[in-house]
Amino acid sequence: xxYGKVCLFLALAAAAPLxxxxxxxxxxxxxxxxxxxxxxxxxxxxxxxPAGRAGVLALVEPASRSVTTVPGFxxxxxxxxxxxxxxxxxxxxxxxxxATDRTALRLDVVDPHSRKIxxxxxxxxxxxxxxxxxxxxxxxxxxxxRERIEIFxxxxxxxAPVHEAFLAVPGGPESLVVDARKGRAYTHLWNGRTMAxxxxxxxxxxTWDNGCRGSRGIALDETRGWIFAGCAEGKxxxxxxxxxxxxxxxxxxxxxxxIDYNPRLRHLYLPGAxxxxxxxxxxxxxxxxxxxxxxxxxxxxxCVAADxxxxxxxxxxxxxxxxxxxxRFPASR
Length: 333
Hints:
Distance between the termini: 38 Å
Order of helices and strands: HEEEEEEEEEEEEEEEEEEEEEEEEEEEE
Radius of gyration: 19 Å
Helix content: under 10%
Strand content: over 45%
Shape: globular
């Protein structure tokens, strides 16, 4: 009996650094929301939570957990279980938020202060990720069904974005992250490869094997020059952005999709939709990964965003909310 109590105490102690603090309810989310992209916007100090079916972009203030919404996106009354409806991806740049509406095939420019859509542009194909490219002042929208990225130029003010070019990505693109320092963007191909793109030349600079059976989420440590690949089978891989060398890998969870990284703590967050868990990985100076802890989340919880303070937001699609945890693990050295 004493041995059993000790084991229980150790298990609870191991989970203590990441106990759930609260859940953030998204308006009209209780019937379910097909979350996809989830992102922290540093200049706004908000979590950008595109709320798909609900027809709003939710802006979550991490400290207070308060939620404000931007309306005007396509909405549906019923949750079908997927994430193909309404607004599903968003990013910040130039004092604006750029969001994609999959139902309407539209790129929207949002004024975060008035919380209104200021202008829109028609997309040439179904969107997945939208990212602002600071190096060129452009907006890139991935379109996996067409195996390409659509590139938009931003006129002055709130004029509608203008289609500029297509960048072919055969076998992808899945996920997108931009390194403003190096002027590169990184995306995955579905078959376990990662592509480096020169954003000024709009051309592929390199393609590397990333060690995944199914490439999914992507994150970046700009200071160290590392790319993190999330593998659907339940694995994280660290790549050197200079030459694509695999520095380390670690298996955790199952059904990994969107991942995120806290550069201050040097922790990588790996949610698994099928395992209903999130793994917290420490990243050493060598790039080696260490499992710091695993906590239960919810079935289907496949996306995550971390703010600078150590709060971690995990989507709960079936209940249309965000689960919030605070990472108390010490920073990796």
